[in-house]
Amino acid sequence: MKILYFAWVRERIGLESETVEPPATVRTVADLAGWLAARGEGYARAFENPRIVRAALDRRHAKPDSAIDGVNEIAFFPPMTGG
Predict the structure, then answer these.
(1) Phi, psi dihedrals of residue 70, rounded to the nearest 5°
(2) Is 72 a member of any domain?
(3) Is residue 83 in some structural domain?
(4) What are φ and ψ of residue 44, in 5° steps?
């Protein structure tokens, strides 16, 4: 699956995007964030407070307990504010 990173999530990880194959035990957005956080220091910093990082599955906002099975693209980004 393709993962996109935006704003400070991208800055901390150091990548705009990547393609990953998480293990079968990674079934939800929260599972994926935890798996990514274990991949290294930049990931750990990006997901140190996973409750504030937002996600979109195939361009639709998703909750942490949303299933990722069959998803082609997942985006992680910080909360947005309007102006």
Answers:
(1) 85, 0
(2) yes
(3) no
(4) -60, -40
Rounded (10°) CA dihedral 19, 23, 28, 32? -50
Q: How far apart are CA 2 and CA 17, in angstroms?
A: 7
DSSP 78: -
State pLDDT tens for residues 45-64. Answer: 999 998 899 999 999 999 99
DSSP 45: H
- In a domain? residue 46: yes
Nearest Cα to Cα of residue 64 among 19, 34, 21: 34
Domain count, the chain: 1
Q: Do 79 and 12 meet the contact criterion of CB atoms below 8 Å apart?
A: no
**Domain housing 49:** 2-77
CATH of the domain at 27: 3.10.20.30
Question: Which amino acid, one-letter code, is at 23?
Answer: P
The answer, as to whether pTM is greater than 0.90, is yes
